[in-house]
Specification:
Length: about 140
Amino acid sequence: MNGRDAGGLEQFFREEGAPDTVVQGGLAVLLAGWERTVASVETGYPGDYEDYLGDLDGRQLLAQALERVTRDQAAVVEGRLRELDARMRRLTMPVARCLWGMIVADEEGWSPEDNWWYYARPMTGPTEFLEEFPAA
């Protein structure tokens, strides 16, 4: 197995501890999840900070999965992903520190350039939700 077939991607998802829905649905499920997250941020995110971090983890898993598929497989989702990312960038503002914390960012090798979703916070939303974000 070369890691660039469906079995390799399923194995990757299992190793990452992804839920069965992601293991079985792959890129399409992750893309749909990111689309729901973006739509939720547009309308006033209904969850809390922990929920939001979990949704960002879905975007991270999508990025990692795209590194493990063929160009043709990636092409199926990349156009839509670019649109969603552009929408999310308009809804968020950059922050200096990773939302997971700098220790985690260093351990994972995340950067504001490559993992921008972890370095941006929504500009609008319920007050209780926004108050959970660390001060800049």
